[in-house]
Specification:
By secondary structure, the chain is α/β, with parallel strands linked by helices. It is built from 10 helices and 38 strands. The longest helix has 21 residues. The structure holds uridine-diphosphate-N-acetylglucosamine and magnesium ion.
């Protein structure tokens, strides 16, 4: 079958009331992507000619996301008639009227479903010329799911929703996974016949299967081998359970690819992250967004790293890092806060209790202790003294500081931007640098120090300091 004859409909029009959230259910995140992002990534990987998400509730948020990340898919809108069957019907209206072939239906709230499972379901469907193929799962607790009813010889008969099932049917542990392949023409004609005489007054997609059987068509139900792949998310308890399982699988895949992960249960890695060989991730590591970690780097414990590129053999300990670059062999932390636009060169250092923002710090340069570096450009092999503040904000505007290479700035300096300090310059301890410093100069503006003899004994009589002063 060519991809021209394949369409994928993704159901995402439900209200998601069980999430109890202002955010649409399918926009809740799992490993760095919204649930819908996981499903659309899979749907678009099948190479189908048509991928059609069906939306209704909170459609603005969903439309914005889909248009931004999946601009080629065609959004369909469900009308006021409720139910998964109606949702598919509305989705089919977006297909060309002469479309014939297979229609895969998946749900926006079943995020772990993967491409191989859908491909083999499609293959089994086409091989036997079925009108419908239903994916099922055999579960310990079938509460809430539609039950799969089979005849004594195991043939598929129908799906009965939990709310419509009798006590005997409620005992059945094989459930509808909410994933199907249909023949397009048969799906259209069966949907036209499905009503909404059920406990929820909805037009159920699940009734299509029995409708097709009645019309003398072939329907099969196949059980998935790995139940996690079809886990549906209806509330936040299920969201965290699926998140933990997915994270465990992501960690395992990286471990097999040569990454040491001491404690997968406290290491959270988004699906969008890339990690090199021989990287070590220590407990409490969160790698988020478009983050890449170069080979041989040591990360953690206790770091949150988002949208950041880290070179080979770097070290990041107890740090919060966002939108930054950390060069090869560089070291960060402990207790460092790297904000967007930080660019630390190879072998550079951002040390303890240091905050940086929009700061380019050249190769081999160091900001080791207790400093704020904002809107700055620092050359190579410069050392910024402990407790230095780049005063970049005049209350209205931000200004830039430019520090050359091989500069040695004293402890407890303030660089009042805009300011330029030339290559090789020095600044004395406690200097407030308000004027540019040329290459090779020493800048100092400390007030002369006065020592008043006998002051303690005269002014603090009877104190331990006064006693000590007499010795
Ligand atoms: C559905 C199935 C159930 C199956 C379960 C698997 C039906 C009638 N029931 O139940 O047999 O065991 O999935 O997870 O299909 N949606 C729409 N429009 C609507 C209603 C729902 O697009 O009018 C979408 C939802 O956004 C969701 C999906 O369809 O992505 C499933 O809807 P949901 O309400 O979660 O159905 P379940 O009760 O889980
Ligand atoms: Mg559901």
């Amino acid at each position: 079958m060519s991809e021209k004859h394949l369409a994928v409909v993704v159901l995402a029009a439900g209200e998601g009331t069980r999430m109890r959230s202002k955010k649409p259910k399918v926009m809740h995140e799992l490993a760095g992507l919204p649930l819908l992002g996981h499903v659309l990534a899979t749907a678009t990987s099948l190479g189908a000619a048509h991928v059609i998400p069906v939306i209704r509730h909170q459609k603005e948020a969903l439309t914005d996301y889909i248009n931004a990340f999946y601009p080629t898919v065609k959004i369909a809108h469900q009308d006021e008639v409720p139910g998964t069957g109606r949702a598919v019907e509305c989705g089919l209206e977006s297909l060309p009227s002469d479309f014939n072939g297979a229609v895969i239906v998946t749900s926006g709230d079943v995020p772990l479903l993967d491409v191989p499972t859908l491909e083999s379901l499609l293959e089994a469907h086409l091989e036997g010329s079925y009108a419908a193929t239903v994916l099922t799962a055999i579960v310990e607790d079938p509460t809430g799911y539609g039950r799969v009813i089979r005849s004594n010889d195991g043939k598929f008969i129908q799906i009965v929703e939990h709310r419509d099932a009798d006590t005997e049917q409620l005992e059945i542990s094989e459930v509808n996974a909410g994933v199907y392949v249909f023949d397009a023409a048969h799906l259209r004609s069966a949907l036209a016949k499905v009503g909404s005489h059920n406990a929820q007054g909805e037009k159920y997609l699940t009734d299509v299967a029995a409708e097709l059987l009645q019309a003398g068509k072939k329907v099969q139900a196949l059980a998935v081998s790995d139940n996690w792949l079809v886990a549906g998310i209806n509330d936040r308890v299920q969201l965290s359970e699926v998140a933990a399982e997915l994270n465990y699988r992501i960690c395992e895949a990286w471990q097999r690819a040569g990454v040491t992960i001491l404690d997968p249960s406290s290491t959270w890695i988004d699906v969008t992250v890339q990690i090199g060989e021989d990287v070590t991730l220590l407990p409490g590591t969160y790698l988020k967004g478009f983050t890449t970690i170069g080979a041989g780097s040591n990360i953690g414990p206790e770091v949150v790293i988002t949208d950041t590129q880290i070179g080979d053999s770097a070290t990041v300990i107890k740090a919060h890092v966002t939108g930054s670059k950390i060069g090869e062999g560089a070291s960060v932390g402990p207790f460092a806060y790297l904000r967007p636009g930080t660019d630390l060169g190879a072998d550079g250092k951002i040390g303890t209790f240091v905050e940086t923002k929009n700061a380019k710090i050249g190769r081999g340069s160091k900001v080791p202790h207790l400093s704020y570096v904002g809107d700055a450009e620092i050359g190579e092999e410069t050392n910024i003294g402990a407790g230095t503040i780049f005063a970049n904000y005049d209350g209205i505007n931000k200004h830039k500081s430019k520090i050359g290479s091989h500069v040695r700035s004293g402890s407890h300096n303030v660089f009042v931007a805009p300011i330029t300090i030339g290559d090789g310059a020095y600044t004395a301890a406690g200097t407030v640098v308000r004027k540019d410093v040329a290459s090779g100069e020493l800048a100092m503006n400390v007030a002369p120090q006065r020592n008043l003899a006998g002051w303690v004994v005269a002014n603090r009589p009877g104190t331990k300091s006064a006693e000590a002063s007499k010795n």
